[in-house]
Amino acid sequence: MTEKFREKLSYLSDDVDERSIVSHLRSVSPHAPSAGSRSPRRCSRSPRPHNPAEPSVPVRDSRPDIAAWPAPPICNLSNGNVSNNNSNQETSVMEESGKLLTMLKVAAAVIEKPLSGAPRGRESELKKKIQTLEDTVAEYERQKYNVMGTFSEYRERVAERERKLEAEYSSKIIALSEEVLGAKKDFEARMKSFQALQDKFEREKEQALEKLRQEHQKEIQLLEQRFSESQLLNLEQKYMIEIQRLEEERKSLKAEKERLGETFEMKLRRAQSLYETELSAAKMLYSKELEALRDHEEALKEELMARQDEFHDRLQELQNQSKRSREELACCKNEVSALEKKLQLKEAEVHAISKELEEAKNETNDSLKKLSEVEGELKRTREQYLEQEEELQRKANLLNIVEAAKTKLEAVIKDLQNEVKALKSKVEFLERERENLQSQSESQNQLQTSQVNALEAVLESVTKEKETTKENYEKLLEQEREQAEGREYAMKKEFTSKLNELEEQYTNLKEQLEQNAKDDSHHVREEVKEEMTALKDENSCLEQEIENLKMQLLRKVYSNEDGAEESTEGDRDLDERNGVITLLRSELKKVEKCVESRDREIVSLKEQLEQENELADDQLEVIRNEIREEIRAELMCASNFSCKDDKIKELQAKIVESDKERDVNQKLADQYLERAEALEGEKQDLKNRVYELESKLSSADEQLKATSVDQSKKYAELEGKIEEQTKAIADFEEKEQRSSEQFEEKLTDCLKSETSKLTDQYNQKIDDAQLQADKKHMFLLEEIKSLNLASDEKTEQIEKLHERVKSLSKEMSSIQTELENKTEELKNFSSKTDDYLRKREQQQGLAFEKKIISLNKEHEKTIELLRQHEQELANELDDLKAENSAKNVYWDFWRLNFKELL
């Protein structure tokens, strides 16, 4: 803008210098007055006394004395020919030069008339005027060279400034591109490392889960095998001992077996509970870590998108600035070419004027030659007149002829007097016109001064209005910021309160579901325990019955009763056993009914969960609608200000956070559904167990039938073998005692080894979990350090932006100083161009008004651009602060969750 202004000033200075020179040429007349150059009077031809020694009186010119030749009258600008003034400037200059030549020719023609006594001082006056004209031409050329020098200096300055601007813009664009590439590379490296760590973590998790599953399956298989083998051995031993041992030893063995079974069941339950708790804890940790990692990925993606948008916006701004600078350079070049064309035209005009001056010089030389010839002729006429006077004195007869000549001369004198009167009237008319022109010039000067004062007042008022508007806008911005902070604080309070309410509802639901699940599991376990105890009691009853039957058989052997009675008693025993089986089946049906009731409870729990999820969704929708209504209200209230964009963005971020919370609630609901599915799986396991019990009962029925058949066969064999076995009872009792002692020792050793193995395995698992937790802690600490470094980089960027704002303010101050200098130059230029302003008042007034308006507009545009840039920088600072605050909140939340997990 300053360069354009300088070019326009140089163009105006050239135009003013040319017109001042033309006005100077116009004011100089070819008949400048000299000392004693009055109009000469003609000598009368009457006879004079004889005095030949008397000096001759010089003949004076009868023309009037005019101080300066007046300029042609200026056309009245009040008649409304303003639009044609610019097009008629060059024609007026040519007309003025033509009038000057005509005036010089008229003066030369007047001098050529045969007059009696032409003064010799006229030549000196004409020479002086020619010298003045040459001096003015030399001054004009000197001014032209000065203008050309200033113009060349200006051209060099413009070129240097263009080079500097292009170098700065290229360096800035290169630096920004390098920053963008570095940021992209850093982000890609971080993303790759993060993905690698995530893959490693998932693989380790899967491997650990697979190992735990395999170990658990192996333990269950070993326990089942041991349990089945021990049952078979115990049954075989019991059957053998029931035949060989006494009732007391059998009771002791039964008590020991029950004690060992209870301890074994307790250990199994503990191991199962520990395994389930570890699995649930591992699942929760894995889910939480996955959620945290996904949130971190989303945050990183958002940061990358924001940085890409920022760099894209900056590149667009720099490209727009470069385009503007190029357009300004093109405009400057066009203006420079136009000025060069105008300078060429002016040089052609100067060349034409110099030619006209040479022609005027030639005409003056011709007029001087003619004057010398006229003077010679005057001398000759004088000599002739002297001779005639001598002849008249000699000849008195020629008086009539002299009187006739006298009458003729009187008529000529009358004609000359009439001409003098006409010239006097012309002189008076010209003086009146000069006075009118002087009054017009004074009035025009007054109008110009008043217009300049008015423009200065307008400029002052505009500057004051700008300052007042700046203050008002700053106050409004402060008020809006305070209101926005208040609203943000209120929104945060409401949002925290709603979050707390949702968290309380969530915790209450979680506690209720956990309590219900615990109650259900506890109830199921108690029922299973009761069923197991009932089955054990029934088994003990069956064993007692078998012992009673054996005792009866022994008694029958000793008493030698009939086989018919034995068969009837066996049938009775089979009937009793069938009754026991029917009882067991009825109990199984009861268990199935309990399982169905549990299914119904699970379905009701699912319905409750769905209802609670629907209520949570409705509440979230209500919260969203409230937030959107608040946003709309704020937008309707503050649609005239651009600072509301930050608030809208913050509210949109809040909406996004509410969406995230909704997703979290949805995830929790999914977890509850998974829990319900797990309960369904447990239900299916219970059903499978019931089916297994039924199959076992059917197998037991078949075994009982087979045993009944076998017993019927064995009873006959036993009768023959009883005698042989009675002999071997003593030996077998000793062996039984030894085998029982060995069996007890083996059981104790196995239990000790199994307990030690289980403790070692659980200790190893705990150590592995601690190591994984430590690794995760270290990983999180490294991420926190990286985020701190990123925040430090962003603070450095904010400081750089502050420095840029300071540099822009300095540029603004420099621009203002340049404007002040230009105003001073304008004042100096106005002081130099007072004469020009007197003649070209309205044209220049209008031109200056248009230029001042355009300059004010350009100045306002620059100020508006700077304000917009400052606002953009302020918005960027606010966005960065908001991002830092959001990151701090996110990491605080993550740290709290991590502490809770630890």
TrEMBL record:
Residues 29-38, 76-88 have a biased composition (Low complexity). InterPro entries: FAM184A/B_N. The keyword Coiled coil applies. Residues 184-552, 595-633, 669-742, 784-886 form a coiled coil. Residues 39-48 have a biased composition (Basic residues). Keywords: Coiled coil. Residues 23-94 are annotated as: Disordered. Residues 122-279 form the Protein FAM184A/B N-terminal domain. It holds the Pfam family FAM184. This is Protein FAM184A/B N-terminal domain-containing protein.
